[in-house]
């Protein structure tokens, strides 16, 4: 579907009385909440952005200041958000096939979510698209232009939600890997939570990570059992490195370990998984996925997140702990007849030996001590250590 035939109505006309501060102009990233919402749609390829304003309209006009953004003044803004929806729809003409409705206080929706809804509309034209995360509907809905008159003729009882409920027979619920579709800012503590979320916005949260995994692998699959075990080991190594002074992003280690095998089952699965992650906007995690099969440690720099995940992956066979030596022997037994494969296996595991030495040197601990005894916050429900964690390790020591 041509994004030129899609518009967005950004609703920014309210008083924000519960917040106590004017929400559209609250700082977020290097700009404002309103500018973040506008940026999301620009990155998604939407050229026609209508911002409905009312309270402090002149202040907002000064902050909009972009040719792609058309301010729409709603003189009835004091009567509630639904009047802003109607004011925005009156600005739309027949050149549009559909329009988003996006309240300004839901500012962390990702551009990839917008693109997902547009693709779904292309496949199911004429149907309302509602994004969902974990089966919970969120914002923004994508509404066919033919329903504009239905909204305009509504008295507004129950707001847009009630109108969409009446149209649910022609609605498609689209699962997306973006929990921010559910997160709005009504109160000061919501804004504080927003600032915390923004620190890791470029990474999938633990819930989003599981949603991404389940898009491509069954919940009971061997792949998920494997990545859980890899994540456990990677997080322990990363925690120990942080304790020794290395500056690692633990959220990135967790996401990279959980999603490193996203492309498993496909030829060249490392790059397939990386491509899937890039399509979702998770570029740092994609870099880890693309490098998890083989990574040549750089002695000029301390171990980073990709190196930790690479080594953790070599220490897990299936969902059980093993050693680099055993992994090498298993690979040579299986592919030793192929000289190219044999050479690749040796190179890969020589890199793993170097990574292990680098981490042991940095932490001053034996690798199995790190995995066994380091006590930090780690992902739960890891089958590798389902019962007695210490004895499970002891049974598998070389």
Secondary structure: elements and pairs:
Blueprint: E1 6-12, E2 27-28, E3 31-32, H1 33-43, E4 48-53, H2 57-64, E5 69-73, H3 81-89, E6 98-103, H4 111-123, E7 128-133, E8 136-137, E9 142-144, H5 148-152, H6 159-166, E10 171-175, H7 188-198, H8 206-216, H9 222-243, H10 250-259, H11 269-279, H12 283-291, H13 305-314, E11 316-317, E12 320-321, H14 324-335, H15 339-363, H16 367-373, H17 389-396
Helix pairs in contact: 8-10, 9-10, 9-13, 10-12, 10-13, 11-12, 12-13, 13-15, 14-15, 16-17
Notable features of this structure?
398 residues; Spore Coat Polysaccharide Biosynthesis Protein SpsA, Chain A; 12% strand; 12 strands; alpha/beta; single chain; five-stranded mixed sheet; 17 helices
Description:
This protein has 398 residues and is of the alpha/beta class. It has two domains: 3-198, Spore Coat Polysaccharide Biosynthesis Protein SpsA, Chain A, CATH 3.90.550.10; 206-396, no CATH class. It contains 17 helices and twelve strands. A five-stranded mixed β-sheet has the order 5-4-1-6-9, with helices on both faces. A three-stranded mixed β-sheet has the order 8-7-10.
């Amino acid at each position: 579907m041509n994004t030129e035939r899609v518009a967005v109505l950004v609703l920014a006309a309210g008083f924000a009385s519960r917040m106590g501060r004017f929400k559209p102009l609250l700082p977020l990233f290097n700009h404002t909440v309103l500018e973040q919402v506008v940026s999301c749609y620009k990155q998604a390829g939407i050229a026609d952005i209508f911002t409905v304003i009312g309270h402090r309209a002149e202040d907002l006009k000064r902050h909009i200041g972009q040719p792609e953004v058309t301010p729409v003044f709603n003189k009835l803004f004091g009567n509630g958000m639904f009047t802003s929806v109607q004011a925005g729809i009156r600005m739309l003409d027949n050149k549009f096939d559909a329009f988003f409705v996006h309240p300004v206080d839901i500012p962390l929706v990702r551009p990839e979510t917008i693109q997902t809804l547009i693709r779904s509309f292309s496949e199911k034209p004429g149907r309302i698209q509602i994004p969902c995360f974990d089966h919970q509907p969120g914002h923004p809905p994508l509404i066919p232009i033919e329903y504009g008159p239905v909204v305009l003729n509504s008295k507004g009882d129950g707001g847009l939600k009630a109108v969409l409920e009446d149209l649910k027979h022609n609605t498609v619920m689209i699962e997306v890997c973006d929990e921010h579709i559910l997160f709005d800012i009504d109160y000061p503590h919501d804004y504080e939570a927003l600032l915390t979320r923004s620190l890791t916005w470029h990474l999938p949260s633990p819930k989003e990570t599981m949603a991404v995994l389940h898009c491509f692998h069954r919940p009971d699959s061997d792949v998920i059992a494997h990545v859980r075990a890899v994540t456990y080991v990677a997080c322990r190594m990363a925690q120990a490195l942080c304790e020794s002074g290395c500056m690692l992003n633990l959220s990135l280690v967790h996401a990279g370990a959980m999603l490193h095998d996203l492309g498993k089952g496909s030829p060249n699965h490392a790059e397939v998984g990386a491509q899937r992650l890039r399509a979702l906007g998770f570029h740092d995690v994609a870099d880890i996925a693309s490098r998890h099969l083989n990574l040549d440690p750089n002695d000029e720099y301390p171990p980073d997140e990709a190196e930790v995940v690479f080594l953790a992956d070599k220490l897990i066979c299936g969902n059980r702990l093993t050693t680099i030596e055993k992994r090498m022997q298993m690979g040579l037994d299986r592919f030793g007849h192929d000289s190219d494969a044999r050479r690749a296996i040796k190179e890969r595991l020589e890199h793993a030996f170097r990574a292990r030495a680098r981490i042991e040197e940095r932490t001053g601990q034996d690798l199995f001590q790190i995995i066994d005894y380091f006590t930090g916050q780690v992902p739960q429900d890891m089958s590798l250590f389902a019962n007695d964690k210490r004895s499970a390790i002891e049974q598998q020591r070389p």
